[in-house]
Task: structure prediction
Amino acid sequence: MFDALIRRLTAPTPDTLPQPDADLALAALLVRIARADGDYAPEEIARIDRILAKRDGLTADAAAALRARAEVLEEQAPDTVRFTRALKDAIAIEGRCELLEAMWSVALADAARDDMEDRLMRLVVSLLGLTDQQSAIARQKAAQS
Result:
C-alpha cells in the first residue's frame, strides 16, 4: 500500500510529492515526533487527529484513519530526512512555519519535554529550512493553544 510512497521517499532525489502524499508524510512525521520519547501517549494521538482534521478538513474518523496509515508508514520509513525533504519541497516556507507549530503541539501534548523529542525537533527545524527563532515562536504558540 505504501510501496510507491516509500520508493519516492527513498529515491536519491525524491520528486515533489502530490498533496495526498504530502499530507501522509506530515502525518507520519507527527507520529514520529509523538513516538520519539518512547511513549506514544493518548494525548499525542488525539492531538495528531485534531491537527489532521483541522488542516485537511477531515472528519474525526477520516483523520484517525489517516493517522493509522501514517503509523504504518512511520514504521517503514527509513529516516526523518526523507519526510522533511518531501515536505520542504511540497510546502512554502509560511506553511512550514505552521507545520512546525503543529509539530510542537504534538511534542508538548503529553505535558512532558523529553530530550529525544527536543533533538528530533531541532533536526526537523533544520531540515525544513527554518530557524531556531521560528522554532521558538512556533513552540510558544503551541504551548499557548
